[in-house]
Design goal:
Rossmann fold, single chain, alpha/beta, about 20% strand
Length: about 220
């Protein structure tokens, strides 16, 4: 059973989905840009067998508030505030793409809050050639204003983000999507190499690993956790 809940974090309402045994270790899931907590549906049944799973709608996404102010640092602060609000001292943390960037920023700054970290097809924080995204037509499940704000940070990341990857103490599984992903795979390999306790598993199905190969993704993650 999935409970649909929300909590206030610094004046921003964050929606989340909760599942799994209440007495199991906590696992927090952070989705990619433009997605919601529901994006984890293909792997949730496997993950919540042995974990109390908290799947967030990050600010500007899904049922969470759309405050109009967006950055990876604000999302990091939201997640930290979420952990505090729910009394979660230390969690396992999975982040996909943008959610992975939020996850490693949290793990860099708050070493004691992340037990194990999983980064799914997350680019290394190095500058890249900017592109201009086109807004899809119709109603969106997220605030379009967050796209240029977050993409600008991913295109030109703070150099400290790269330098501080070496501070992460949590054992980290880096899942790469292989040559079918738009994320440069050499950058994913570099990301893992910079982590003191990082390892890479390639599941060659493209950027949306947990959707394209849910069984393989869940098997790798549950074995690691």
């Amino acid at each position: 059973m999935i409970d649909h809940l929300s909590t206030d974090v610094g004046g921003v309402r964050l929606a989340y989905q909760l599942s799994g045994p209440p007495d199991a270790p906590p696992l927090v899931l952070l989705h990619a840009m433009g997605e919601t907590a529901a994006d984890w549906e293909p792997v949730r049944p496997a993950l919540d067998r042995a974990r109390h799973v908290y799947a967030l709608d990050l600010r500007g996404h899904g049922l969470s508030d759309r405050p109009g102010e967006y950055s990876l640092e604000l999302m990091r602060a939201d997640v930290l505030g979420f952990l505090d609000a729910l009394g979660l001292a230390c969690v396992d943390l999975i982040g996909h793409s943008m959610g992975g960037a939020v996850a490693y920023l949290l793990a860099e700054e708050h070493l004691d809050r992340v037990r194990r970290l999983v980064l799914e097809d997350v680019p290394v924080p190095r500058p890249r050639e900017p592109t201009t995204p086109t807004r899809p037509e119709g109603q969106l499940a997220f605030d379009w204003a967050l796209v240029p704000a977050i993409r600008a940070q991913i295109d030109t990341p703070d150099p400290k983000w790269l330098d501080r990857l070496g501070r992460i103490t949590a054992p980290t599984l880096v899942i790469a999507g292989g040559p079918g992903s738009h994320v440069p795979q050499d950058g994913i390999a570099e990301l893992a190499q910079r982590l003191p306790d990082g390892r890479v598993v390639t599941i060659p199905v493209g950027h949306l690993v947990h959707r394209a190969a849910p069984e393989a993704f869940a098997s790798a993650v549950t074995a690691f956790l």
